[in-house]
Amino acid sequence: MLSGFFLCRTLRTSLALATILSLSFSCLAQQPNFLFLFADDWGRYASAYAKLEPNEPLQGLVRTPNIDRIAQRGVLFRKAFVSAPSCTPCRSALLSGQHFWRTKEASILQGAKWEPSLPAFPLLLHEAGYHIGESFKVWSPGSPVDAPYGAGKFAYEKSGRRWNDFSENATEMLRQGIPFEEAKQTLLDEMASNFDQFLGDRPEGKPFCYWFGPTNVHRQWVQGSGKRLWGFDPEEFKGKLPAFLPDVPIVREDLADYFGEIAAYDAAVGMLLARLESSGLADSTMVIVSGDHGPPGFPHGKCNLYDFGTSVTLAICGPQIPADRTIDDLVSLTDIAPTILESAGLPIPESMTGTSLLPMLRSERSGKLDPNRTAIFVGRERHVESARADFSPYPQRAIRTDEHLLIINFRPERWPLGDPYGFIRGLMANDLGWNSTTSGAIRNR
User: Range of 270's domain?
Assistant: First the structure.
């Protein structure tokens, strides 16, 4: 009798363990994959916004059919904002799910250091059994480079990085007599091969998270490449520029070149989506597309707290996300990390101040969904010149509601990078970068 009791108990224990293991494997199988598409210096220009905002004529000129497909298959966010309109601070906030002013030395650009105690959603996914990988820019400049994504341990770039200098490489291939479509396809195949290698290394049945971070939209691009490569005629931009940009030929050409790089990014997105579909993984993958801040080298853009610098494109599609919806709630890119973790069925660290977007993503409604989202917060400290002993930060914070933007400048007596005349003479405008609105002034001094 006693031996029978222990045998019965052993069988029950074995069955319980088998059930737990079965449920665990089932849960793992149901976890979505993540394809994270994050462009450097790409603001809020995507043709998906054109029909929603006819009063912004420049939106009608940009062409992003592949990015638009992500919006059509899922959700397009109309009011998405970064935590800081500078690369490394924004990415620190995005990866850790909290605002940049909480990330200590990771909150600057040059000289940034990743704090090991900060949670990073890619590494949390990896610890939970995800196959992770990245190509190109994740978190840099900073030390260690790409620390919150394994510091190069999970990099897939053996097929090349030429996509990051798209207009330069495509223009050089044109000089060699290679037709543009052939040159573009060569660069696309090279770029996509990195993703192919990542998928090829994935253990069968294991969920994945892949980060694609091209830098081609970041300056410098080849002057005139927007028209030469993509057919963006600067004259079509005449009369359509925002009031803070001079409506003159060199600025219109600069914007056309910028739109050309956005078109190149969109082509890359299309190629990766095609690879996802051909691999049979599209239905099980959440696709997120966005960028780290507004346009580089334009007034009000990168490094500025105006909407032109802080608002970004955000579109998400994937499993259990009803299609063709537009959400008007204010959201921050700090919300991305908790969204991904909750989608994967993982706990959200208490230090993450972002709020998961998953309830809104799985809703079938459009418009305003969450009455608690009444404002978002953005800020800046310093961009490039952090190592100079004589340099002081330029601290600002801003509150953005549906109708108003309040920017608080805590040290109004300071110029962003010294006195304006020294900034022009020395080309020290790292907060602004080279741009067509100051190039004439620089040449004349």
Answer: 29-366
